[in-house]
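Batch job 17 of 40 flagged for manual review because the log was empty.
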Amino acid sequence: MKYILDTHTHTVASGHAYSTLLENIRRASEMGLEILGTTDHGPRMPGGPHLFYFGNLKVIPREIYGVIHLKGCEANIIDFEGNLDIPVELIKNRLDIIIASLHDVCIKPGTRDENTKALLGALKNPHVDIIGHPGNPVFPIWEEEVVKKAKEEGKIIEINNGSFSSRPGCEENCIKIAALCKEYGVKVILGSDAHICHQIGVFDKAERILKAVNMPEDLIMNIEKQKIVKYLKAKGRLSDVSLD
């Protein structure tokens, strides 16, 4: 299967990644991707960028090296209510795409009920588009509750390729989540979680999860440019991007 977008990538601005934005976009072009999201960590992440960084993303052209560039953030969920470390006005006025994720350096892992509540709160946020790496075993959740809420809110669940090396023990959780997404008709998206340009567009491990549950193509966001563009346009973003 050919994948044409990667919505979860990091640059040196995240503090623990090793490629520049232009190196990532060039690599995306070489990989044949049509869309690349730059989603550096929110400011609560140790070493992460200041809010000014996200506010100034407007200077970056929409298309570079033939790749449509999405200006985004992997926002940190900072409490069990699902609040984020990125202000609403900044999201509305400057950003194209928001991934909301739990990171144990930003919030201490809670009980299964507490972790689930955090994701449910993030899913209620109209500015959140994707729940990042929900299969992380450090944050056990009630998977069915999260997937059903994603369906209710029209949100996307990520299968994170980087998790299989950085979050040991996630595979069983990811298979369960993917199977639930298939059952409830929830859109899924593969994210490389690239922290160096050579990881851009690499989904080999995440793809195995999709194959394990025989995920229908119509639920996979990465295979058509129009899917993510339509999704973001419906939320009032990407007015400068054509559906052609």
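Reviewer: the log was empty due to a logging misconfiguration, but the result itself is present. Strands lie at 5-6, 35-41, 63-64, 67-76, 97-101, 130-131, 156-160, 188-191. Unflagging and moving on to job 18.
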